[in-house]
Design the sequence.
C-alpha cells in the first residue's frame, strides 16, 4: 500500500485537492474530519492528510512514500544526503518567493551589495545585522553567498512583517506572493534579494520507491497523469471546416504556417455536406499553444475556414513521461522493469 501525504488545512489544502481532481486523481474523503482518504483511480494507495510543514519530514523518514509540499519547506528542512527526491518541482500552484525585505525608510539600500555595506557598518559599531526568518538554513546560505558574514538570525513566529517596526529585527527573510503585505508594513524587497522561487512540488522517498512492492508502478501513474494534465493547460484544440479540391490541397494550406499547424501537423476528415458543392469539405483539427490561439483561428479563416470551434484538451501525453524518465535515471535498473 503506497502512502501519499497531502496538506491538511492551510493555503495548500484546497489547491492540492483541486489539482489532483483536474489530473484525474480525485481524492475521496467521506468525512472532512478524517485524516485518511483514498484515490479511486489509484488502487492500493492511501492518502494521508498532514500538516504541510510535516510532509517533507514524513517523506524523508519513510513514513510515507510520496507527498506534496511547498518547495521552500522541502529545501529548508531536508538535508542534501536525505533519501528524498523532488519528482516534479513545479505543480503550477502555490507560487510565492522567499525574499529579503528591508524597511522602506532605508532609501539607499536597494540591493544585496547595499545590505552588505549596512552589515559592515553595524559591525564597526559592535553590532550585528538582525534578520528575522522562519527559514534559517536557506537564509544563512543566501547571506553568506552574497558576502554578508556578520549577522544574527532571529527566530520569528506569527506576523514577521512587524519585526523591524517593533525593533525585534533589522530586516526579514519571508515568503511573499504579491508583495502587498510587505508594502503595507513599510517594507520593500531588494532587487536581487530573492532567495528561492517556490511553489507546490511532488516529492518521494527514493529508498521506499525502490523497495515497496507496487510503489513505483503507482508513482508512474501519478507522474503520467499530473504531467499530462499540466501540459494540457498550455494547449487548445481548434476545429474548422475548410473547402478544397482534396485533403492534400487543404493540408498544404494549413502547413503553410507550420507553427500554427498542430503539434505534429493537422488532422483532416472529410465532411459529407448536405448540399451539392463544387469542392469537398474537410474538418481540420489542430492543437496549438494557447498563446497562439487567435493567430491560428485567423489562419484557418484566411483559408475559408468556418464553423470554428475551440476546446481545451484534458490531457496531453508525450511519447514518455519526462518526470518518470528522470526518476528512472536516479533509481537505476530497478525501475527499468516497470511498464
Sequence:
Amino acid at each position: 500500500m503506497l502512502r501519499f501525504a497531502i496538506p491538511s488545512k492551510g493555503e495548500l489544502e484546497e489547491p492540492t485537492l483541486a489539482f489532483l481532481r483536474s489530473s484525474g486523481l480525485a481524492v475521496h474523503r467521506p468525512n472532512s474530519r478524517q485524516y485518511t482518504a483514498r484515490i479511486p483511480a489509484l488502487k492500493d494507495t492511501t492518502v494521508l492528510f498532514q500538516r504541510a510543514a510535516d510532509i517533507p519530514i514524513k517523506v524523508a523518514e519513510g513514513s510515507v512514500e510520496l507527498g506534496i509540499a511547498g518547495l521552500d519547506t522541502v529545501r529548508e528542512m531536508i538535508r542534501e544526503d536525505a533519501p528524498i527526491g523532488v519528482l516534479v518541482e513545479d505543480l503550477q500552484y502555490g507560487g510565492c518567493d522567499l525574499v529579503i525585505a528591508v524597511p522602506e525608510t532605508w532609501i539607499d539600500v536597494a540591493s544585496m551589495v547595499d545590505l552588505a555595506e549596512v552589515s559592515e557598518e553595524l559591525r564597526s559599531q559592535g553590532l550585528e545585522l538582525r534578520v528575522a526568518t522562519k527559514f534559517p538554513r536557506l537564509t544563512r546560505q543566501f547571506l553568506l553567498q552574497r558576502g554578508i558574514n556578520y549577522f544574527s538570525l532571529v527566530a520569528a513566529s506569527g506576523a514577521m512583517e512587524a519585526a523591524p517596526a517593533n525593533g525585534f529585527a533589522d530586516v526579514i527573510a519571508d515568503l511573499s506572493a504579491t508583495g502587498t503585505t510587505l508594502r503595507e508594513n513599510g517594507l520593500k524587497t531588494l532587487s536581487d534579494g530573492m532567495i528561492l522561487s517556490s511553489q507546490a512540488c511532488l516529492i518521494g522517498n527514493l529508498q521506499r520507491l525502490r523497495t515497496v512492492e507496487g510503489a513505483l508502478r503507482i508513482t508512474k501513474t501519478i507522474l503520467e497523469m499530473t504531467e499530462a494534465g499540466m501540459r494540457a493547460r498550455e494547449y487548445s484544440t481548434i476545429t474548422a471546416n475548410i473547402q478544397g479540391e482534396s485533403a492534400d490541397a487543404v493540408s498544404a494550406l494549413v502547413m503553410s504556417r507550420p507553427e500554427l499547424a498542430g503539434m505534429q501537423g493537422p488532422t483532416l476528415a472529410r465532411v459529407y455536406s448536405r448540399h451539392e458543392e463544387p469542392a469537398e469539405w474537410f474538418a481540420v483539427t489542430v492543437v496549438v499553444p494557447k498563446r497562439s490561439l487567435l493567430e491560428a483561428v485567423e489562419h484557418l479563416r484566411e483559408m475559408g475556414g468556418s464553423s470554428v470551434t475551440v476546446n481545451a484538451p484534458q490531457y496531453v501525453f508525450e511519447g514518455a513521461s519526462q518526470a518518470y524518465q528522470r526518476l528512472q535515471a536516479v533509481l537505476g535498473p530497478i525501475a527499468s522493469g516497470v511498464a
About this structure: The longest helix spans residues 215-232.
